[in-house]
Amino acid sequence: MRGTKASAAWLGAVLTAVVLAACGSSSSKTTSASGGAGTTSGGGSSGQSASKKPIVIGAAIDQSSTMKPFDSPAAAAAQLEVNKINAQGGVDGRKLEFIVENDQLNPSRTRADALDVVGKGANVLWVTCDVDFATPSTEVGLSKSLLTVAPCIGTDQMGPKRFGSQGKLAFSYGNVAQDEGAALAQLAIKQGWKTADVVTDKSIVYEVNDCQAFTKRFTELGGKVVAQDQFTQGDHTVGSVASKVNGQKAAVVTLCTYPTPAGDLPAFVSDLRSLGNQTPILGPWSIDGTFWLPKDPKVSNNIWYVTYASVFGDDPDPAVKALEQQLTSSGNPPATGGFVTGAAAIDGIVAAIKQSGGSTDGSKLAAAMESFHNLPTVSGAVSFSPSLHSVYGRQYRVMHVVNGKPKYIEEMKATTPASIG
Amino acid sequence: MSRLAPIRPLLAPVLLIVLVTLVGSLTSTATQQNFITALVSVTIVIGLYVFMGNSGVISFGQVSFVAIGAYAAGELTIPTGPKHYVLPGLWSFIAEHSVGNLPSLAIAAGLGALYALVVGLPLMRLSGLSAGIATFAVLEITYNLLTFWPKIAPQSGQTLSLVPTTTGLTQAAAGAIVAAVVAFAYQRSRRGRLLRASREDQSAALAIGVDIHRERLIAFTLSGAVSGLAGGLLVHQIGSITPSQVYLELTFLTLAMLVVGGTGSLWGATVGAVLVSLLDSYLNQAENGLHLGLFKLTLPSGAADLILGVLLTAMLVLRPRGLTGGREWQLGRPRVSKIRSASAMSYLGRGRARR
To answer: Among A65, A79, A107, A135, which is least packed, fewest CB within 10 Å?
Structure first.
């Protein structure tokens, strides 16, 4: 009987845990609520805004794992833009509300958080900056017929290409890799680099597409790709890849990868430089920022990349500079230039709502968004097309890292996105 | 009640599964995900229990069968149109066929069993540390196959997506109950008893003619089937899967569930899975701030894994047989059992006296 009593005691503990779990979950873990000073500038809109329901943008993003350097600054900039719009009276008298939940990049948490913000009345779903990681939440948004927006996914897969007919509701305010890779190729040719060794991290589609686009446009512009090397983030082969690259003696090394706890990006740079190789390394926005750079300034040297904005105080656009300073002074200094995409996405959502006559119906907003051509946003002109639901034709900032310090060089725009099939 | 006597040990796990389902159904859609995860975890841990609990042999490779089931069920239910885009390198016979939800779960279970049978043929001759290392190698092999072989999965470990999300509370509960019934039927069967005999005393089992290799292989295959089913439920819950989701973290977590509950009983496997899964879900939420009535619990990042690690270590040190002590909990067991025990003892005593 002692065993039975013990088992009954444990059953009681389990029952308590199950009930507590249900109770504990009843409250949310929303980390950011609506912002805004609440002042109104429109004469007749103040009375309306008090009675009208807010427009809720619900975000399920990563604020503690690999995507944090990309998701968090974009969300912080989005919140500032929401505050600004609310201070001006909102959208047709309706306030914007931006709620954020941290999915920690855990797939089941990502789905649960997306369902949670939808349950809290989200009219638009906001997802993480990688199409693979964002898939569980994106599928929730699309199944609920909501406009589903990522601030900085950089592939053409955030749209009908991956998600079929439902994907008409999915958009990203990130630069599409076909465009970014083409801009990198133009930069290489402009710098006089006629030969390239292309190194691709195959772990995410964005990096694969970026290097494919670079290769295509670089060849079209008369450059020669002398070698193509590949690795997969975390497969421990990056050292041997660096040795092979060192043997190729190309004029530029085009590196498509991103910083993760596996550390392949800094390892590649360190390994190449330790071989005495100071060949310029050229990469996309995903290598922006100083947080991943090896500490030795001789190692973190001669690295080039294109990005949305400079976060080092030398961006040429005063509005971007002001936004960056606002973020820094509010305790959220952006790690990369991708922060502007958060504000741009809010601008785009607001423009789509206005075009739809104040409706938040997903298909109406998507139709409006698909028609954007050079829509002015804080991040520059934004264009979409029926087949490309990520941005193309934006001005890039060309950055050059010298002795561990990134510096803005110039603006650059891809003539057209590269066609990579 | 006497007609129920043979299945009494099954009632408690089934009732707990039903209870979790009922409580989950009263919560919001988002919170339900935690309960669905708990039920899917029950199925995975029961799969683990079928082999480890009955054989006493440690296995770090069971999550391989979950992975096989997840990828099989996922790939077979993506509509053929987008499948060509999401999985461009896939074998044509997989790319050109799609099946419904239930057939995909059956195929997941079947492939899990087949894979377990194939790898079990050589491995089931091992025990102790050798078995642990060999089964871990199976996990590594499976992970690398799913990461780098585009004929069977997306290239370079990219996400398998667009899988229909059909695992709600009902399907997760049904899967867990099926797993519990299968595990119970096996442990009550002659085969199950022979394997448990070998667990208690290998030499004695060999002496009475138990073919330990065969018995372990049967349990390993059955465990593969249950784990494959669990993988199917998992992929249909989230709608996507990557190799890293069915690798080390899930292996550690499910082993912790079985150890915390008690490796020796179906009841222990069920209790451990429910408790640890819900605890894991809520600790992870607490890292972002979790409102519990009047107060808010906020833990630092990484605290969830740390707490689970401490819990597992404490359990191994203080209560190595788990919360349930490795015993089944028999609902409604009549008090007469005490009398029967007493008479059995006196019978044994008489026997001893005769000798």
So the answer is: A65
